[in-house]
Amino acid sequence: MTTLLLIEQILNGLQFGVMLFLMAAGLTLIFGVMGLINLAHGSLYMVGAFAAAAMAAWTGNFFLALVASLVAAAIVGALIELTVIRRLYERDHLDQVLATFALILIFSEATRWIFGSFPLFLNIPDVLKGTVTLPGGIEYSVYRLTIIVIGLAVAVGLFLLISKTRVGMRIRAGENDREMIAALGVDISVLYTMVFALGAALAGLSGALVGAIQSVEVGMGEPVLILAFVVIVIGGIGSIKGALAGAILVGLTDTLGRTLLPVVFGAFMDPSSATTVGSALASMLIYILMAGVLLFKPTGLFGSA
Amino acid sequence: MISTKAMQTLRMLGAASAVALAMASGAVADGHGGKVKIGLITTLTGGGAALGVDIRDGFLLGIKQAGNEGIEVVVEDDQRKPDIAVQLADKMIQSEKVDIMTGIVWSNLALAVAPAATAQGKFYISPNAGPAQLAGKGCHENYFNVAWQNDGPHEAAGAHAKELGFKNPFILAPNYPAGKDALTGFKRTYAGDLAGELYTKLGQTDYAAEIAQIRASDADGIFFFLPGGMGISFLKQYADSGIDLPVVGPAFSFDQTILGAVGEAALGIHNTAQWSPDLDNAASKAFVESFKAEYGRIPSIYAQQAFDTANLIVSAAAKADVKDTDAFREALRAADFVSTRGDFKFGSNQHPIQDFYVREVIKDGDVFTNKIIGVALEDRQDVYAAECKL
Amino acid sequence: MLRERYINILILAGLVLIPAYAYFAEEPFTITLATRAVIFALAGVGLNLALGQGGLVSFGHAAYFGMGGYAMGILASHAQNYEPIMEVPFLIEGTNSMPVIWLVAIVMSALLALVIGALSLRTSGVYFIMVTLAFGQMFYYFTISWPAYGGEDGLSIYVRNQFPGLNTLDPIQFFGICFVILLAVLFLVDRINKSPFGLALNGAHQQEERALTVGINVYRVRLVAFVISGAITGLAGALFADLNRFVSPTMFSWQISGEIMIFIILGGVARLFGPVAGAALYIVLEHFLGGLSEYWFIYLGAILLFVVLFAKGGIIGGLSKKETGRAG
């Protein structure tokens, strides 16, 4: 494998990591502020992708589609927060897992009921199609570079929101002491609804962004949900910084494992069993990584006990 | 839509009066008089539901058009879970007392259900999955496959790659049994050098790393088997990668159920199948028209296979009583029905011997579909037939 | 307390009487459904020991369920093909004897639970939930891509394994076997719950600090409970594989972990008979809702949501009008 290809694969790993971060950011934000574990986050990702596909089919405009994904996911997020999620804050994690698991069942089948069983069409806008040549001669997809930029912008935006704004101050206060902030006259329930809607909107946006280069179909949220959980567990649940670090670590491990392991095994095995064993191990690699991290840091890289 | 209920009991009684019924059964009394009950288990919920829905719709259309009021169909949803499929098979055999089972989309589910059905003396007639195990050593006199043995479309793609003059293609498939069979099938007929061979994770949706490897290799073409959402993702990302190598694949990633979601990215790609909506014969044209009229969409190969399956059963039921297992089996073997794919006959292992076509993805008005541009393999029989002791 | 006992007796009676009726009415599929309920109940009783009694929310019990299934699949497939599993350094042959298979399933899933538990129990709370989920996924992907035993295709066993003196292919006899095992395990778990060990486990769940100060080695108590819990779920997996005469990687999928949890919450957390009632209800719902609509998962989700939000004690809690569950 040439150095150039290796560099390109590292870039791919970064890009995959940023895609995961978009998903994980909302998840970890919601956990950090409300202490809620939300399995239905993958459903919000799906809602965003379907809303974007429907809007794109109607108007033919990708940017309106992105707006639709944000709005639809935020509205749906706010609705489930008001009806279901807020009853779960005081409950234990088991109840949260099961209630949000129930939401997955409802969302998946309801989406299929509305949109049918066939995957939907959502494509990259013309301006972002094609590739650019990066320094060193790497040809790289413009759209994937855009995803990296958006992802990093979201990371910076969230960081600023939490550390510099009034809302962020309340969020941090809410994380530390719910009673205190309520006593100070901040309407905690409005704050929670807003945070949940924000997390949902992020999930919806990533669903739409990723949906343009993947498949918009029922059940698309669940594999990425599990990856996002791996990300935030490695990074430390509740920490935006941790989610970014975890996402990039997972993205790199998965991408490089997939491409390098078959080569490594090829050194001492015949090619066909090397690809088999290599890809089998590669598919387990991020879970091994996660077990390894927790062995040394049981609360993740940036987590607090 | 015939009905949105998952469990439908379709009694083909129509508005016929008792007198008409008596006359109808009198008319066929010289052949047989028995009723046939068919259990159709397929995937109607979750991610793979599009394929199951097409199988159900194609099958029910075939039964409906036959107008044989002695045929009853029970439909159940397997949720794409093998253990649910096995339970449903038990239910259909033990409670519903069906004579024939059909409908399963996926090979791993078929491998769980078909042996269970044939072991209990029922017929299993596969409208889609054709795993090697059931075509070779594990073949059974009551197991029929109306679609293809799984390797067929891949072998056709290999033959077509060779004909296109591929010298050094890059091939990839998911790392699971059907994926391995796909690459083996391709290599069997292509039999040349490879630029690379990759197994991806089942359910993987990001293919940036694989596409980078393809770009870095000196490949002159690509063969891939990535069914369902995996194929949609790969094609969109490949189209955006700027690589311009010819792509060949089996029909699964270019079929009517997903072409709409892939869009322009699939245009012009050659893919192989036993049928295409533009196939030039009367039965096929009538089928496509009636399917469109009934369901408002172009039928996929899954719908076509299920439609043929229904017609095969109808043809056998006209000749023999299903309770007379030996006679009914002979009637099935004769394959005395007008297939939508033109000539159709069974090989010794009761899998089809058939032509595979090369299709090209085109845009017809607003709709993406396929058009036949040639024949990849003629009268192809699977290689496992030799191992079958029927 | 007394009322809950009556409810438990009613549940057991229902589980015996329905298949018995089906046997005389010649409805073998109803017996199959009842067997399925009993096996799911067993898996749930296993998880309930860790989850209900110990407060260890494992989202990865499919790993043990699958391990038990594959113990059956591998042993029986070797017996079916007359190929030994290994010859060096010593000969191990396949078998189609149920008791041997159960033993292997229990030992293998206990060992797996020991390794996973030893690692996972270093964490707590949400981390524990997610780590156990990740371990389950690891095995799911491993079995899919591991070609030796069928990969995603799974393994078909054509004839159900044998139990001395019984015809296991007869639905009612196989139901009997599963039911007796469930009773035995319920009895065992009841004894465990009431033993000093069970009290220590519950104590560590309710008040960890206090358990530590009275000198309980919380980590070890939890690990032992986790291992027993995994072993029971593994046994259920072996029976489930025998019911279907088929194993596949879906037994390792995270949806199975979720379903086992659902049995517990539907029936009532930390109640001895909770998973039994929950599994039975789940099968009934699956059977009847599935007949109502193609989109029956929506209804299942709504019912589950209702139980979690408004009927905390599950069916048993609802019927006995007692909010908090305590096994016994």
UniProtKB/TrEMBL annotation, chain A:
Keyword entries, A-Z: Amino-acid transport, Cell membrane, Membrane, Transmembrane, Transmembrane helix, Transport
Record GO terms (molecular function): transmembrane transporter activity
Main location as per UniProt: membrane
GO biological process: amino acid transport
One Pfam family matching this protein: BPD_transp_2
Superkingdom to which the source organism belongs: Bacteria
Entries under InterPro entries matching the protein: ABC_transp_permease, BCAA_transport_permease
A single GO cellular-component term on record: plasma membrane
UniProt subcellular location: Cell membrane
Recorded topology in the membrane: Multi-pass membrane protein
Spans traversing the lipid bilayer: 14-37, 44-60, 66-85, 97-122, 142-162, 183-213, 225-252, 273-296
Similarity annotation: Belongs to the binding-protein-dependent transport system permease family. LivHM subfamily.
Protein name: Branched-chain amino acid ABC transporter permease
Lineage of source species: Bacteria, Pseudomonadati, Pseudomonadota, Alphaproteobacteria, Rhodobacterales
UniProtKB/TrEMBL annotation, chain C:
Entry keyword annotation includes Cytoplasm: no
Localization per record: Cell membrane
Domain of life: Bacteria
Example GO molecular function: branched-chain amino acid transmembrane transporter activity
Alphabetic keyword roster: Cell membrane, Membrane, Transmembrane, Transmembrane helix
Keyword Ubl conjugation attached: no
Predominant location category: membrane
Transmembrane segments: 7-24, 30-50, 62-80, 100-119, 126-149, 169-189, 219-240, 260-285, 297-319
Pfam families: BPD_transp_2
PANTHER family noted in UniProt: ABC TRANSPORTER ATP-BINDING PROTEIN, HIGH-AFFINITY BRANCHED-CHAIN AMINO ACID TRANSPORT SYSTEM PERMEASE
Protein name per its UniProtKB record: Branched-chain amino acid ABC transporter permease
Organism: Sulfitobacter sediminilitoris
